[in-house]
């Protein structure tokens, strides 16, 4: 069986179930397993099977203290009829490249791939009579709804989401406030996303609150993208996309493929690196950033420097200054040098900057390339993709496509990861296509986008029109803890 330990110390190994329940290691590091490179999957096997088979194979390999039956049940529950295609993550042509469509889940964003699975994995790990768990999360838009949908109705668990009042799109707000389920809670906060995030961190650090909740058999946890239970499910679609290219006869088994990934917290592209270490023939992984280009600078210079201005962009899910999952790459690229990782992370915390030794950067650069797209380039890419390729893409996907187009093609097949439905960002997509959207609400933009392009909005989004608003709570930042406590009382009564 493989064990997980912190990126900052190899002491105190835990099983994958324990790592998934804990989320983050006690020393603040991220859970990793050293067996990763020793577990090559058979490409012939992967290419002969469907998404669900590959999900069972990948998860069974990475999380090997789960039984085959447990994994099979999780896969069936996570990738069922709530997806609008049985292929789950289909690949389609995009000019001379390929588009990997990760937005066919219940909330139309790629986070569904992981957040439909994480609650299942947590549910099995806590066992039938374990502590009850309340997931608490702050969201700037996408994560909140994906977490609500994933955890709704899961036995013994609840989910509470905070979003900044007036600072998410119409559609994103409606997705959250119409969420069904007896174990969900949603609250708008009078403040910014940072206020929400800061308050949620305080809730996790509040020992008195934790003590009161423990007295009622409830523990708080997070669904953050550093959880191995969110990372592992994302490895599946790299293998499955490869299998689809083989079946389309675009490549032969063994050929290398390049992936370009719109990146924020570095979870998605790191899953591609895991796939490579598990035997997938990956030529390069291209990290695409928006104007928050801290990763582009890092990959170019070897220095990670978060001391910079934060830019609000039209690809908000990538507006991030600290890409947490990068810590796992530093661990693997340094051959498991926990001491080095710990000292780099201490530098980041104390000085806001760290510099990685050349030998580690050489290893990283042998796999990773990078590039950036500002909002103007992103809009131009949305427009050109529609006019020239008949492809309607969202702003996050457009960042990746811009970077991919700017990367010289060395003859390998290339896959651009598409992380959200364009209908989640109707107003910005319409504006990119040259339409005026002043004063139009979310549904007016949705109608206009359908009319202009002759495409159809996903029913998960157009259906929100008929949705009943079930959550109208609003609180000040200093009431976030009290809201969590009352949500726990209500959900776990
Ligand atoms: C979260 C998100 C990303 C960034 O993914 P990371 O794993 O954080 O790098 C990109 N696009 C969309 C639409 C997202 O929701």
In summary, what is this structure?
The chain has 22 helices and 16 strands.
Descriptive report:
This protein has 493 residues and is α/β, with parallel strands linked by helices. The protein has a single domain, classed as Rossmann fold. The protein has a 6-stranded mixed beta sheet with strand order 4-5-15-10-11-14, with helices on both faces. It has a 5-stranded parallel beta sheet with strand order 9-6-7-8-16, with helices on both faces. The chain is globular, with a radius of gyration of 21 Å. The mean pLDDT is 95. Pyridoxal-5'-phosphate (PLP) binds next to helix 12. Pyridoxal-5'-phosphate binds next to helix 12.
> How is the CATH topology named?
Rossmann fold
CATH architecture classification name? 3-Layer(aba) Sandwich
How many β-strand runs?
A: 16
Helix/strand class: alpha/beta
Q: How would you write the strand order of the largest sheet? A: 4-5-15-10-11-14
Name the helicity range.
40-55%
**Given this structure, which CATH class is correct?**
Alpha Beta
Number of helices: 22
Could you say which small molecules are bound to this protein?
pyridoxal-5'-phosphate
What summary fits the major beta sheet? 6 strands, mixed
Task: Give the integer mean of the pLDDT values.
Answer: 95
Q: Classify the beta-strand content into a percent band.
A: 15-25%
Number of domains: 1
State the shape: globular
Distance between the termini: 38 Å
Radius of gyration: 21 Å
Enumerate the spans where pLDDT stays under 50 for 5 or more consecutive residues: none
Domain Threonine synthase N-terminal: 4-79
Protein name: Threonine synthase
EC number: 4.2.3.1
Organism: Thermophilibacter gallinarum
């Amino acid at each position: 069986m493989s064990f997980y330990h912190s990126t900052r110390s190899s002491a105190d190994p835990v099983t994958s179930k324990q790592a998934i329940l804990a989320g983050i290691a006690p020393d603040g590091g991220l859970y990793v397993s050293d067996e990763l490179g020793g577990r090559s999957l058979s490409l012939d096997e992967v290419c002969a099977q469907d998404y669900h088979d590959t999900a069972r194979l990948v998860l069974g390999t990475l999380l090997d203290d789960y039984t085959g039956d447990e994994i099979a049940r999780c896969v069936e529950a996570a990738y069922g009829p709530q997806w609008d295609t049985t292929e789950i993550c289909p690949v389609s042509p995009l000019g001379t490249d390929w588009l990997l469509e990760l937005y066919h889940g219940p909330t139309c964003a790629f986070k569904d791939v992981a957040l439909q699975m994480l609650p299942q994995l947590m549910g099995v790990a806590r066992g039938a009579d374990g502590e009850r768990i309340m997931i608490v999360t702050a969201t700037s838009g996408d994560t909140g709804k994906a977490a609500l949908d994933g955890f709704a109705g899961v036995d013994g668990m609840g989910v509470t989401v905070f979003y900044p009042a007036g600072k998410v799109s119409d559609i994103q707000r409606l997705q959250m406030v119409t969420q069904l389920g007896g174990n969900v809670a949603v609250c708008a906060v009078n403040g910014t996303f940072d206020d929400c995030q800061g308050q949620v961190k305080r809730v996790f650090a509040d020992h008195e609150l934790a003590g009161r909740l423990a007295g009622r058999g409830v523990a708080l946890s997070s669904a953050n993208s550093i959880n191995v239970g969110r990372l592992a499910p994302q490895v599946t679609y790299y293998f499955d996309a490869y299998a689809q290219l083989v079946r389309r006869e675009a490549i032969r088994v063994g050929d290398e493929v390049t992936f370009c990934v719109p990146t924020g917290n570095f979870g998605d592209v790191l899953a591609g690196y895991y796939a490579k270490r598990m035997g997938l023939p990956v030529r390069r992984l291209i990290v695409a950033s928006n104007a928050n280009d801290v990763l582009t600078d890092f990959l170019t210079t070897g220095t990670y420097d978060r001391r910079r201005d934060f830019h609000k962009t039209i690809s908000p899910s990538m507006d991030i200054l600290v890409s947490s999952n990068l810590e796992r790459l530093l661990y693997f690229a340094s051959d498991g040098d926990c001491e080095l990782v710990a000292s780099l992370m201490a530098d980041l915390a104390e000085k806001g900057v760290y510099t990685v030794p050349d030998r580690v950067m050489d290893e990283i650069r042998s796999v990773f390339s990078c590039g950036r797209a500002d909002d103007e380039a992103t809009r131009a890419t949305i427009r050109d993709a529609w006019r020239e390729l008949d492809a309607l893409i969202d702003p996050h996907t457009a960042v990746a496509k811009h970077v991919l187009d700017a990367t010289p093609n060395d003859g390998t097949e290339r896959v651009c990861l598409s992380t959200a439905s364009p209908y989640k960002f109707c107003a910005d997509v319409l504006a990119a296509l040259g339409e005026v959207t002043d004063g139009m609400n979310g549904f007016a933009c949705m109608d206009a986008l359908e009319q202009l392009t002759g495409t159809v909005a996903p029913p998960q989004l157009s259906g929100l029109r008929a949705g009943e608003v079930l959550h109208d709570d609003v609180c000040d930042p200093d009431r976030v803890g009290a809201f969590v406590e009352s949500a726990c009382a209500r959900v776990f009564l």
